[in-house]
Amino acid sequence: MANLKTTEKKTKAQSMGMHTEVLTGKTQQKFFNPDEAENFYYWGTYDVDFNKRTDLDVKDLDCKQANRKIDELMSQGYGTIVIKNPQGKHSLGVGILNKLNLIFEGSLGYFGVGSIDGPMVRVNGRVGWSCAENMMAGKVVIEKNAGSCFGAAIRGGDLICKGSVGARTGIDQKGGTIIIGGDAGAFTGFMMQRGRIVILGDVGINLGDSMYDGTIYVGGKIGSFGSDAVESPMTKSDIDWLKRKLKVAEIGDNFDVSKMTKVVAGKKLWNYDALEPTEKKGAI
Amino acid sequence: MAKKKKNKKVKSKAIKGQLGKKKETAREKMIGQTIGYRYDVNLLPDYTRLTPFLKKYIEAMGWDDLNWLEDVHMGYEENRPAVFDRNANGWVTIPKKIKLPNNQQDRDMIARELLVKFQMSPNHPLVDLKKAYRKF
After folding, report:
1. CA-based, 20 to 30 A from B4: which of A160, A252, B12, B117?
2. Which of the residue ranges A98-107, A169-178, B37-46 would you say has the lowest mean pLDDT?
């Protein structure tokens, strides 16, 4: 029977080129100096002024041209940009790695404001599938409803929809907070690994299916729990944080957060450690 | 008459969850990496413990709260306290001269502050990468 802990097997694996480096983590020590200046500036970003405001009509522009134009305006120091006539175009406002106040006067299509890191976005309309997917930081507020996969694979920041959202909201979520003022569809929080989802209304079937970690708060009815999603008692810390967060999200002023249902991972699917050696054995 | 030997109870120190002191499992020793979290990744931040630097940072970015930093916690790497930098995809170890407080809330605030300073530093590894590969 193969024993992976023996030196012999390790040598064999190494000779086959499976271990070309020492697996001791990726530590960085030499770069860090905590006394560095407090400049509040990320290298390579534009120094914008929130008080410097401009409008951009994207009626006759395609998404690539519109996004390039937003970048150009930021390079000129504009900190507040109002997008006129978005007309449901796809992939608008994506990849903004800058602090910015971005306002869309209308609705967005698929993959709106994806992969952003820092801006505050307001959409005075609806959004299509996968809004703010892979968002890193910042705040996005949708005034009306959103499509499926809202906040897919989000890693950080606050994503708020004042209306209702479709299925698979927060699928593969790795951080950040998603707040829904209305209802959410099936498979909300599917495979989420970290972060928080707050739903003030009802939620569909299979809530938090196969979730690895993270927390889901539901104010209304739950269609059904997904695999390994379990109810957990609310704490004072949860209530304080929810009150604060809903204020930031500009919704649920009079909502009684203490009556919400908290859902977490049951951690029965945490079996990677047991499986991994078996997989490695198969590979060797 | 033979005296009965009393078995002395050995007091084991509670090291579970202590920063950098949890005993590694055989599996962790073998692969040289930590498995799972050794701190509460779901811990919600206590805003009464915000540091002055973080208050200034929130104001400068135009946010209402810690935003993405809510998910930043003090972990540890190679038995030293460290914070994970997602931009560099690596652990940034905390300098030895910084004394860490006993509770996780305060440790997390320090981790957030140091991470922001590190990311905004001209010595951050991403600066060189951007210089080399940035398209526009």
Report:
1. B12
2. B37-46
Contacts of A29 in chain B (CB under 8 A): 92-93
Smallest CA–CA distance, residue A276 to chain B, in Å, is 10
Residue A36 has its nearest CB partner, among B67, B98, B121, at B121
Which chain B residue's Cα is nearest to A212? B36
Q: Which fold has domain A45-283?
A: Pectate Lyase C-like (2.160.20)
Reported as a single tens digit per residue, the pLDDT across A114-169 is 999 999 999 999 999 999 999 999 999 999 999 999 999 999 999 999 999 999 99
Query: Looking at the complex, does the CB of residue B83 fall below 8 Å from at least one CB of chain A?
Result: no
The verdict on A269 touching B (C-beta cutoff 8 Å) is no
Domain ranges of chain A: 45-283
Verify whether the Cβ–Cβ distance A28 to B90 is below 8 Å.
Answer: yes
Q: Is A53 on the interface with B (CB under 8 A)?
A: no
Structural element, H or E, at residue B76:
strand B75-77
Write out pLDDT tens, residues B86-134: 988 888 888 888 888 988 899 999 999 999 988 888 888 888 888 888 8
pLDDT for B16:
44
